[in-house]
Input
Amino acid sequence: MRIAMVGTGYVGLVSGACFSEFGTDVVCIDKDAAKIARLEKGEIPIFEPGLDVLVANNRAAGRLSFTTDLAAAVAEADAVFIAVGTPTGRTGGEADLSYVYDAAREVAGALQGYTVVVNKSTVPVGTGREVQRIIAEANPEADFEVASNPEFLREGAAINDFMRPDRVIIGAESERSQEVMRALYRPLYLIETPILFTTLETAELTKYAGNAFLATKITFINEIADLCEKVGANVHDVARGIGLDGRIGRKFLHAGPGYGGSCFPKDTVALVHTAQKAGSPMRIVETVADINDRRKKAMAGRVIEACGGSVAGKTIAVLGLTFKPNTDDMREAPSLEMVPALQAAGATVRAFDPEGMDQAEPMLPDVQWCQNAYEAMTGADAVAIVTEWNEFRGLDMERVKEALKAPVMVDLRNIYNPQDMVGAGFDYFSVGRPLSSYGRGQ
Output
């Protein structure tokens, strides 16, 4: 089997590398010649644990290559995956599908022999049918079918998610196209991974529905956390109590500053737009997106409150900038709302992130960038933990107190025990865990 992967962004690069690990010959294609040159030299343009080794091993084995020549790669392929970006459009929140449709037109002119064209990009319902129409119009002689194969990759754990997924969703409506997709995913059949074949529209909607549901769980527990603070309950215990119910499950019940990243913010808004356009509005998802935006904007207020109601003339250390750990992705990160709000309130911000500072620097002007957590805290009036990188979980608290002007910590990820922090002499603030509630029933 031979695959042409159009797009070497997060989804395309990870998917291409993982398919090659399955033993398939994969050519990853991108218009950006500089990016392809970097990949050919073994330089990975994104941070994803293990991806550099996976790419290097499969390039050495001859199964993975990179090119700017779409026509040559597509002509040899049994399946062409379109894995280009679908950012939010400039108006209305709809997904911008111009990159997908442009890729489809280019692919159409290069098809030779029977080929399955697979939408791997996250796309709204109806995109597969439009891709089918575009290719047929551009190349009426083409022998092809369109399939939908949405990705369910978590940044920071993407390789494991691809190699050992909970499920694989494939919208493929003929036995011929299904056989091609079965062959590509044969290694997952061998480990009895659930693989669901369905229609194009169902596969497209399943991706959006899954992300919207997870975003709803996050937003729900964040609102419960706010209520916990008002009534003296502990959100960790509440989350554990409901998460032990098999109908609910414990994942995505971690209170914090709100969700970010490349998927949840974009996909919830796109689903809302799709539903409105179809005349079937989704009020729950609309509310989830609105609440999450408001929550991220409110995080600076928690730091200001912890500093006595004002940060004017004060220095705040911010630990973690990316939307989650184990990635350098800054898209829709809570820090992008929080840091400018602290600066607008008169604070100087000193920041450190293990992987995200190169991405963050052009987005967050006038920040003092530091080489490690302790440098960021030196001389600061308070420290805020915004991203739960592992190296922030075991800070030397005596050293932290020595670095800070005042022992004030705002832990927006709840990675420390409130009683321990108070015992260590800190003014400690977390999310949904009033000190009066902590420790009951434990």
Remarks:
- The longest helix spans residues 200-231.
- The chain has a mean pLDDT of 95.
